[in-house]
Design a protein that fits this description.
globular; 5 strands; alpha+beta; single chain; about 20% strand; five-stranded mixed beta sheet
């Protein structure tokens, strides 16, 4: 009897907590999305996607808070990938991370003081690890014939500071056309 009562109590508390969470179509979320749409340029792909109903999954991560504290709306993790002859990723390494104050467009943050602050907070390490993990589960966008030898390519993984904004859940692989040291 006590077990049944305890299980019922836990279920009710969990349900009450869940009902207080924001859902993708709640008024608060849609108002928030409208505010973001207003700040995006008219030709923005993100703006177009949001207006067509695209939304993020609503899952909030601690690194999003750190991005906001640092004034970063978007981070792009660039990764170099060595592929085997079947197109599978063999070795993935960090090329660079670019931080932006805008959701779309703009130039990467280049101020050494800001970049140093980002590095000291651990945000760079978190995004690098997450980017590497996403890259392990990527997919091919283009695969040239014949395959270049050595087979070198890369990917970019984008992170936004807002859980309601849509991003690709997997990384898209591309073939690098320059030498092994060229940037994607």
């Amino acid at each position: 009897m006590t077990t049944t009562f305890l299980a019922l109590l836990i279920t009710l508390v969990a349900q009450a907590t869940h009902s207080q969470m924001e859902t993708p179509n709640s008024t608060a979320v849609e108002d928030h999305i409208r505010d973001i749409v207003r700040e995006l340029p008219p030709d923005s792909a993100l703006r177009r996607n949001l207006l067509q109903g695209a939304r993020g999954n609503g899952v909030h991560y601690s690194w999003m808070d750190e991005m906001r504290k640092q004034g970063i709306k978007r981070a792009v993790v660039w990764l170099d990938i060595r592929f085997d002859s079947k197109g599978r990723a063999k070795e993935i390494s960090l090329n660079r991370i670019e931080y932006f104050s805008l959701y779309e467009g703009g130039i990467p943050i280049s101020d050494d003081t800001r970049l140093g602050a980002i590095h000291t907070t651990g945000l760079e390490k978190q995004l690098s690890s997450l980017g590497l993990e996403k890259a392990r589960h990527g997919f091919w966008v283009d695969l040239p014939r014949p395959k270049p030898q050595p087979f070198i390519g890369g990917t970019q993984v984008e992170f936004l500071d807002d859980e309601w904004l849509p991003v690709l859940s997997a990384a898209a692989y591309f073939v690098r056309t320059g030498g092994s040291g060229a940037n994607p």
